[in-house]
Amino acid sequence: MSSPLLPIDDINDYLLSTVGITFIILGTIGNLSNIILFTQRSLRTLSTCITYLLAASIANIIDIYSYVLLRALYGFNITPAYSSSIVCKLQLYLFYISFCTSSWFMVGCCADRYFSSSHNAILRRYSCMRTTFRMILFIIIFISLVYAHVFYCYDANQFNRPSLCFIRNNVCLILDTAYYFTFQCFGPPICMFIFGIGTFIHIRRGEQIRIEARNRANVNIIERLPIHIVKLRKNNRKILPMLIVQIILYIFCSLPLMFYKIYSTLQISIIRNNIPLPVENLYLSIAILFSFIDKIFSFYIYTLSSAYFRTELIRFLTQRCLRRRIVPEN
């Protein structure tokens, strides 16, 4: 007699295969489009934070093909990570690094906006390509070291767990949850919020300086301000809508996985686990796929939220079409 929970496994396989393939197609098109546009001179020279967005798009591509692809293959019962310890560890290690670095690159982008909008010349010095490259390198190295515990804590053939490629014991579960809350769930949003508030304060302060200068009718100050403030303010207005929408969506998409992490940690000693494994595995699959939404659809988010990004996209497509129409002379 078949188990009544078998249809849940079928639903999970169907979800992983259909949604996974859709995410791969849309995510590949979107993030490759981001990479192409962010390497264009008009966007690359707009602000140093574009480099962070470029790095985040590259990390998203790695995330798609190191994790989403394998999750999609699970839906077709192709499960190399379930039986191979090496594949299991490498898959999750690449997932954590690319997923986490993508989030912290967004933090770096917010920090760059904070420094560039400051009226303090010392702070504005940090908004430069040298600092940007150093921060990107630091984030990659630091996150790679932080998640080195994956090679010990995760393993294949973990029966009686939500997934066969899962955490080995409860100590590793607590450690993994602590890292998740620190470096993925709470760390990036809190830093984004702090730098966002700081940027808002800098912009408001710039407006107050303009008003005070205008009230004093000091033409010299009014003429000097646009050189180093008005240009930065215009650039902030072009980029900030993209960042704000991305941050809000990031926080929203992190909630299902956050709830699962809390539940899985509490069930060790406080909550008795009465939920069948197929149901828990289905929720875990949904939570993981949900957490990818902001990274899969980043290109479409930028297109909808930023008029400047749309203008650059149309300009790029127009130039490509014009080049194809040019017929070489014999």
Structure, described:
This protein is globular. A two-stranded antiparallel sheet has the order 1-2. It has 15 helices and 2 strands. α3 (49-74) runs antiparallel to α5, α9 (170-185) packs antiparallel against α11 (219-266) and α11 (219-266) packs antiparallel against α12. The chain has helices at 6-38, 41-44, 49-74, 80-83, 85-116, 121-124, 129-146, 150-153, 170-185, 187-215, 219-266, 277-291, 293-296, 298-305, 307-325, and strands at residues 154-155, 166-167. By secondary structure, the chain is mostly helical. It has a domain at 81-292: Rhodopsin 7-helix transmembrane proteins (Rhopdopsin 7-helix transmembrane proteins, Up-down Bundle), CATH 1.20.1070.
Gyration radius, in Å: 23 Å
Classify the beta-strand content into a percent band: under 5%
How many E-type strands? 2
Structural class: mainly alpha
Quote the average pLDDT. Answer: 80
State the low-pLDDT regions, or none: 1-5, 219-228
How many individual helices? 15
Q: What is the fourth-level CATH superfamily of the domain at 81-292?
A: Rhodopsin 7-helix transmembrane proteins
Could you give the order of the helices and strands? HHHHHHHHEEHHHHHHH
Q: Which bin fits the share of residues in helices?
A: over 70%
Major sheet description = 2 strands, antiparallel
